[in-house]
Amino acid sequence: MKVSELMTRAVQTVSPDDSLHEAARRMSERDVGALPVCDGERLIGVITDRDIVVRSVARGEEPRRVRVGEAMTHDVEWCVEDDNLEDVGRRMSEGQIRRMLVLDRRKKLVGIVSLGDLARVRGNAPVVARTIERISEPPTSHAVGR
User: Fold this and answer.
1) pTM surpassing 0.85?
2) What is the pLDDT of residues 12-49, one digit of tens each?
3) For the sheet containing 109-114, what is the strand order?
């Protein structure tokens, strides 16, 4: 199965110039914990609820004044929409990634695939179980947002 058959297509994004308050508001409206950060159509990172808390709020900063670009995660894992879902699940497992951004061949953001999406695939239980097990292990890096 290809990622394009399962991914969520209507992905809300934020700009690096948006405030953390605006990013949090959009997350709340969509009931999501992460938003891709795009400069125009170019993906430049991701901002997670954890990024907002750890990189700003916990330091006493005002979310209305701090820009997404100051707190976002720059090192973003992504896949291509016609990648095989099992390969992407393996990458998510190995990298302890809960959400994988999906790009088209022109590197334009077209969707997102989550651990929950993987769990919805009939017959995908071994991939999901392995991925959850790996994600639950202590982190292998200090990367925030994974």
Assistant:
1) no
2) 999 999 999 999 999 999 999 999 999 988 899 999 99
3) 78-80, 99-103, 109-114
